[in-house]
Specification:
The chain is of the alpha+beta class. It has one domain: Peptide Deformylase (Alpha-Beta Complex). Helix content is 21%, strand content 28%. The protein has 4 helices and 8 strands, in the order H-H-E-E-E-E-E-E-E-H-E-H. The strands form 2 sheets. A 5-stranded antiparallel beta sheet has the order 1-2-3-6-7. The chain has a 3-stranded antiparallel beta sheet with strand order 4-5-8. The longest helix has 15 residues. The termini are far apart. Bound molecules: zinc ion (ZN). The site of zinc ion has 5 residues, from helix 3. Zinc ion binds next to helix 3.
Length: 195
Amino acid sequence: MNHRLAAWTEAELGVSGRVLDVVRAPAPVLSTPGAAVDPTDASTVQLAADLVVTMRVSPGCVGLAAPQVGARVKVFCVDVSQHPKARDHHGTFVLCNASVVEASRNEKAREGCMSVPDLTGDVKRSTRVVVHGWLPGTGEEITVEANAFEARALQHEIDHCDGMLFLDRVAGAHAVYARQTYLQARPPDVIRSEP
Ligand SMILES: [Zn+2]
């Protein structure tokens, strides 16, 4: 447990976040590795606030990365605290230029993504990771150990920052599934009148 990270809240950023549109696959920005950012730059701080607000207004969203809002940089937010599969976790936080520095054995589990709204897939992820990155705003260096569901969320978001989707990590077409509940929740197609 990293107590500094657990104590972090978006109020530290000192700016109001804006709700941004979430980009969907196959938008090229989702398959482009993000550039490293200056964590103390005002644009990074604003992006961090925007990511947190956009995550919060999205039901069931446990993380959001900059490429998903069209920004080609390595910034993401995570918050698994409201998810039933979460055990120990660090609440809401944003990391810049993060990378996995240590990883344990893999476990396969079902995964989804706001940028791939119609599909889920079975993805092997490490159940315990050590991640290194920087806090937006103060630029503090953070090393965090994460487990279980939070570890999975971190790996998913770091992948986004490297231009990868969960679909790039599934074992094959047999490990991809239609998200039925989402499809059923859609409004019926509008019947268009002929011109
Ligand atoms: Zn995603």
